[in-house]
Amino acid sequence: MAIVTSLQFSASSxxxxxxxxxWYLRRRRSFFLDNIRNVIPEEVSNELEIYAGYGxxxxxxxxxxxxxxxxxxxxxxxxxxxxxxxLDLENIAMMVRxxxxxxxxxxVDDMLKYLYGFNLNELNQGYFEENGEKVEIKQQDVLxxxxxxxxxxxxxxxxxxxxxxxxxxxGFDPTWGFRGWHINAENTVCSLISGGFEAxxxxxxxxxxxxxxxxxxxxxxxxxxxxxxxxxxxxxxxATLNAWExxxxxxxxxxLILIDGKSGKKTDxxxxxxxxxxxxxKEMVTAVRFGMTSYxxxxxxxxxxxxxxxxxxxxxxxxxxxxxxxxxxKKLLRGYKxxxxxxxxxxxxxGRAKKEVK
Length: 358
Fold this sequence. Notes:
alpha+beta; five-stranded antiparallel beta sheet; about 20% strand
């Protein structure tokens, strides 16, 4: 997964988006990633009204384990009656961080055990037991190699999937509203997202440039009060597509987690949207970026598609009908290339100069 983006719309709402492309050992391209997930068990969300999504970048198996460990921790705290801890998402962000540490440690132990027959604790104590006998770890080359793996001084195709992982964790709680965190498995840092947006992965600079282009135009009051939810989806899509168009390893389908903690319908407080709906949303924003339609035109269509859950085919037909040139739009969406500039103006015809009359 090459890009995960997040944007806060208001004090109580926001979204996360990611693509599904993954390159196994940077060689084999695939489109099966599922690293953007709900980390709050449904029974906990229903009672405490907390909603949060996890978007991971890095190795798929690592994030699958982190998500499951986090869900287990949240459920255990809930069943133990520690509901006050769960009402602040920062505490759950710390659970995510702890789950990353545990997953990283488990994978390091497995690698050391496979290569040398001992785990990290045994490396630190200087010996391990085999068939009831104490075996001291004395070979300096083995000690140095094992320590280099455990501290990530050895960086290769075996250690990168353990350490090169990070995530965006964002959601809503009744105490603080919508917030997000950037959590890095390599250095176990958990940072509050203070700017209202975040992007991680290979395409982060492309997404960051687009976020800045949009948000730098907001007044102070607009930044404080937030943005309309439809414009928010369009802005999030534009940032993701900017990474898509200019950076490697971004592709496949798009997945969206939409959170609105104050929605009147509980079913709309946490939603996951993907597949054909996101493909049509992507096509609408792409059409605007290439001048085939306008923001004003796609705004009601995006509202119908994402928030009003309108029929996909009806929205698609309205979108195609809105294009100034349907043939060109269909070609664009099929991958045809379009010259970015109009034809140069023709030089004025040069006539014969009239002879001056004396």
